[in-house]
Write a structure and sequence with these properties.
One of its GO terms (cellular component) is nucleus. The protein is α+β, with helices and mostly antiparallel strands. The termini are far apart.
Length: about 600
């Protein structure tokens, strides 16, 4: 009979005498496809196609039990979207098959790239002609460790797609390559003994885990599209001294400095409702979560990570912060690693080579903390797939008195926990295996390189620190705030003014006049940077009503909201009754003050 494996894996029964045509009909029935809607090949590189019209038996086609076949939808190209696992009865044939996996667009793009590192002819070492190649100039594979180690800075982990090329290379072209997700749970369905804690056997018992430093990373680089995105996020800490957390929304692109690498480009930071103090953060239920995801999707953005601050002011006169995260303390605490693992499990990475249809995650953790120069630095990390498995199956705990240490849970009558080990050197320099009780979290962390902020991106330029919905502690977010935001904006075009994630969210979710059903045009204008579309929406009845509401609460006629004039903002924007940003340290000061509260320099 047919056996169904987890998340779409199937075994298709057949016999030696089964014809190819009959077998393909059985596969179509098993997957719910049309018989002519797909093709099956004996090799991953789309060779050895099984003809659906032939009357030859599977034994004549040399298909036997345990063989792997590959299913492609009609007209598809490149690497298979499906790996199928099937088994036959009698002298059963086993063919692997999974459900179709829709990978991210960046993964589909990189899968089609050559990826090899091409080198020029070396004038000193190469002894051949211009058209020849030798060991000194032959192209290198994208996973070449010597090449990666000689980059500036050196790359410790290869990119995930380079790792896939390494798996699928060699003589068998990756015919048997598969990425297995780790499971720390007892396999269900074992009937030879009573359930845990009364019984367990080698068939259902999860394997022990030895933690290794991961050799690849799913994201190689992260950057902000504009430096003001980060400055705006930090402004909450500057004003209150409390820590802050936000979700990073952006897109994944190719990072060309490393072969087949992925970069996360951050276009906006959304700060969910939270209780914040100088030493802690607590996330609250977010009533706007669905609207945030809807707006992001229409803008072509996805949630690429999360960011939090860990900042302690050292000298307020010169604006320095304490350098606390280093090799003598920790880079990420165990609790932060567990939180990162939780988020990465929520945002798993679709992958065609995994039987589960997903493997790892492209979700990045960014920490705003003090650097060696006592200035604010951004450090970015991911946690390993092993850490994700330990967190998912609730096997990892933080240590109360040592933030740099985690603790692998012990088995109890409610839960079986496999043994977790890690390797380290003893005082004599020998490799020794230790039980992960406790566990240095450095075994779970992967570095992601953050470059310095780049001011070249014009889209999403921040024009004001006033309008962030969840910062009610600093100022109420209502139409009065919107009126102030519009009147103080120094943008020269309407498109730049509405290219603000929090402003768009307010327009959709405010209780007075939500524009959820009529904001599609301006979202498309922002997504495509189309000023004409923005001007068309500006003339709509909805925006006219918004202007009228702003003028009512702001005490000025709509015409004075001069946010589209070449000369910049209206005269009202320079009023002493509004908050102002210091030109020297960007600190937002209260109305009526002439000296910056942060750096004590004059307003001008």
């Amino acid at each position: 009979g047919s056996k169904s494996l987890s998340d779409g894996m199937k075994k298709v029964p057949s016999t030696k005498r089964e014809t190819a045509a009959g077998f393909i009909k059985q596969v179509a029935k098993e997957f719910g496809f049309n018989s002519n809607g797909f093709s099956i090949y004996q090799n991953r590189n789309k060779t050895g196609e099984i003809d659906s019209k032939t009357s030859k038996s599977l034994s004549i086609l040399k298909i036997k039990h345990g063989d792997m076949l590959y299913l492609y939808p009609s007209g598809s190209v490149g690497v298979p979207a499906e790996v199928m696992d099937t088994a036959a009865a009698h002298s059963s044939t086993s063919l692997p098959s999974t459900s179709f996996v829709q990978e991210d667009s960046i993964d589909q793009y990189l899968a089609k790239q050559d990826g090899k590192i091409y080198r020029n002819r070396d004038a000193q070492l190469c002894r051949h002609g211009a058209l020849g190649k030798c060991v000194h100039c032959v192209p290198l594979e994208p996973f070449d460790e010597d090449y990666l180690n000689h980059l500036d800075p050196p790359v410790k982990q290869m990119s995930f797609h380079a790792y896939i090329r390494k798996l699928t290379g060699g003589a068998d072209k990756g015919k048997f390559a598969a990425l297995e997700n780790i499971s720390c749970k007892i396999k269900s369905g074992c009937e030879g003994h009573p359930p845990w804690p009364e019984g367990i056997c080698t068939k259902c018992q999860p394997s022990a885990i030895t933690l290794n430093r991961q050799r690849y990373r799913h994201v190689d680089n992260i950057m902000f599209e504009h430096h003001t995105i980060a400055d705006r996020f930090l402004d909450y800490w500057r004003k209150t001294g409390s820590q802050r957390m936000g979700y990073l929304y952006g897109r994944y692109t190719e990072h060309k400095d490393i072969p087949l690498a992925i970069r996360a480009e951050v276009a906006a930071i959304y700060e969910p409702p939270q209780n914040a103090t100088q030493n802690s953060l607590e996330l609250l239920e977010d009533p706007r979560a669905a609207a945030v995801e809807e707006i992001a999707a229409k803008l072509g953005l996805v949630k690429v990570g999360w960011i939090f601050t860990d900042l302690i002011s050292e000298d307020t006169r010169i604006g320095t912060v304490r350098y606390s995260r280093n090799q003598d303390s920790y880079y990420l605490s165990a609790e932060e690693c567990i939180t990162s693992g939780y988020f990465q499990n929520l945002h798993s990475n679709p992958c065609r080579l995994s039987r589960d249809g997903h493997f790892g995650s492209k979700f990045v953790t960014v920490v705003a903390t003090g650097g060696p120069d006592n200035q604010v630095h951004f450090e970015s990390y991911q946690v390993s797939n092993q850490c994700m498995a330990l967190v998912r199956d609730e096997c990892l705990l933080p240590c109360r008195d040592a933030p740099e240490l985690g603790y692998a849970k012990e088995s109890s009558s409610e839960q079986y926990v496999p043994d977790v080990f890690f390797k380290d050197k003893d005082k004599f320099g020998n490799d020794v295996t230790f039980l992960a009780r406790p566990l240095p979290v450095e075994y779970l962390i992967i570095d992601v390189t953050p470059p310095p902020p780049s001011p070249t991106f014009r889209r999403w330029t921040v024009t004001s620190n006033l309008f962030i919905l969840t910062r009610c502690r600093l100022s109420p977010q209502d139409f009065h705030s919107l009126s102030t935001y519009l009147s103080q904006s120094s943008s020269t075009s309407f498109l730049n003014i509405v290219s603000d994630f929090h402003l768009l969210l307010f327009l959709v979710t405010n209780e007075v006049m939500p524009l959820r059903d009529s904001i599609g045009l301006i979202l498309e204008a922002v997504k495509t940077s189309n000023e004409d579309l923005a001007q068309t929406w500006k003339k709509s009845e909805q925006w006219a009503t918004i202007e009228q509401l702003c003028s009512t609460v702001g005490g000025q006629p709509p015409s004075s909201l001069d946010y589209g004039a070449v000369g910049g903002p209206s005269a009202a924007s320079s009023s002493s009754s509004a908050m102002w940003s210091c030109l020297h340290c960007t600190f937002m000061n209260q109305p009526g003050t002439e000296l910056c509260e942060m750096c004590s320099l004059p307003r001008g």
